[in-house]
Design goal:
The protein is mostly helical. It contains 21 helices and no strands. The two termini are about 45 Å apart.
Length: about 425
């Protein structure tokens, strides 16, 4: 039921924040360093494990305070068990980073899919046996265990008993700015969950969290994959501004070509999608989802612009932007909280569009790729995605919220978008074919 999912959503912010501390920007620094040594990798490995244990101990003893804050006593034991996932995952942090640096994304994908499949089956089995909210906890822990074991045995690298002060100093100089920026971003991204969980009901948080998660699946998740692929490559071009500019333009257009229609498509079929996948008990999530997608669709443009600062080693500028954006976003959040969940979702759209101005500032300054230049590149994709959205949304409105409506709406949207891209000869179609080959 929604309130049981809401319990897990209330704890997400604490698990996510722990993950930020464990990484501390060291993974990005390790990928960026071309001549990484055994001492570098071992230092990051032991750092990750030590910090993960510290974070778990802190969460273990803070669990009663967190459960008191939400006025839900059962959260204490749930947090203490589910937090074990951060320690488990830390044992394969460097191994994942090395796979990313070697651009072995095929292996990462296989392991993630295997972990999702096994943990998904485990979650369903335990839910069927009546474990209720604990089925979600077991699912999460199982996924971390399977993924960690797979990555550990795939990568031949093994840690040495070394913690290099030189490596720590070097990585902390670069990673500290990323850590501070990631903390700001994580706090802001999860502040909605904290506020909704405290001010509204657990079920309301579940509705919002389900809509937010589906938006992430179509925006943040594919963007993260795209960044993992492009970051090591663009790092090699960091001293050639012309090649870097060309690479960024291609990355921006290709990501928009894939993610804009995915995000808007989910928003267009939100009501039949939620009704078919989760039943009408969750139908209010569809209302929130149809709003949030207009905020989430811009995520790849934000992320790719900010990625430029990582490539250039300017994590200080990244941190400066994060402070500015989060101040304005918190102001918007404070204004919309009393107006209800839908108003908060509309506020997130305003925050996203304002953040777009800030995030394109330095790419405009250094590469002459400001917001207007980027929007010019993205305009054909944006227009075609808009037409696709209207067609799919009208189809869903006419046919209702059953599975026939869902299939028909997706088909109409796909025909409009793919047909339009082929008809107007979008260059991204050819690029996707080349990538697939």
């Amino acid at each position: 039921m929604p309130d049981q999912f809401g319990m897990i959503a209330m704890l997400t912010v604490f698990i996510t924040l722990s993950g930020v501390f464990i990484d501390s920007g060291f993974s990005a620094a390790l990928v960026r360093k071309a001549d990484r040594t055994q001492a570098d990798c071992s230092t990051v490995y032991w750092f990750n494990i030590i910090v993960s244990v510290v974070c778990y101990v802190v969460l273990f003893f803070c669990a009663p305070l967190i459960s008191d804050f939400y006025e839900m006593p059962q959260l204490k034991s749930i947090l203490r068990v589910t937090s074990l996932s951060i320690v488990i995952g830390s044992f394969a942090g460097v191994h994942r980073t090395l796979l990313q640096a070697d651009m072995d994304f095929k292996a990462l994908t296989k392991f993630n899919l295997l972990a999702l499949l096994i943990s998904g089956v485990a979650g369903i089995v335990f839910a069927y046996l009546g474990f209720e909210v604990w089925a979600l906890v077991i699912q999460n822990l199982t996924m971390q265990v399977i993924a960690t074991i797979c990555v550990w045995f795939k990568v031949s690298w093994r840690p040495s008993l070394i913690i290099s002060k030189q490596s720590l100093h070097e990585f902390f100089g670069f990673g500290s700015k990323i850590l501070a920026s990631s903390l700001l971003d994580t706090l802001y991204s999860n502040i909605y969950s904290v506020v909704i969980g405290k001010v509204y009901k657990a079920a309301d948080l579940a509705f919002y969290n389900r809509a937010f998660s589906l938006t992430q699946m179509t925006s943040s998740l594919p963007t993260g994959i795209l960044q993992s692929v492009t970051y090591p490559t663009l790092c090699k071009l960091q001293h050639d501004d012309e090649a870097l500019k060309s690479g960024y333009r291609r990355t921006l257009k290709l990501s928009a070509f894939v993610i804009f229609p995915m995000c808007l498509g989910v928003g267009a079929v939100a009501f039949p999608l939620i009704n078919v996948l989760y039943t009408d008990v969750w139908i209010y999530s569809a209302t929130l989802l149809s709003i949030i997608v207009f905020s989430g669709m811009w995520y790849p443009i934000h992320a790719i612009n900010l990625n430029f600062l990582f490539v250039k080693g300017r994590s200080d500028l990244f941190f400066r932007l994060e402070i500015i954006k989060k101040i304005q976003a918190v102001v918007i959040l404070c204004v919309t909280i009393p107006l209800g969940l839908e108003a908060m979702c509309y506020g997130s759209i305003v925050s996203s569009l304002l953040a777009l101005i800030w995030n394109t500032h330095y790419t405009g300054k250094f590469l002459k790729m400001g917001i207007f230049a980027q929007l010019r590149d993205l305009l054909p994709i944006l227009l075609l995605s808009g037409v696709m959205y209207i067609g799919a949304r009208l189809t869903a409105n006419v046919l209702g919220n059953d599975i026939i409506s869902l299939i028909a709406s997706i088909a109409v949207g796909a025909i409009i978008y793919i047909g339009g891209a082929l008809l107007f000869r979008f260059p991204e179609v050819k690029e996707l074919k080349n990538i697939r080959k």
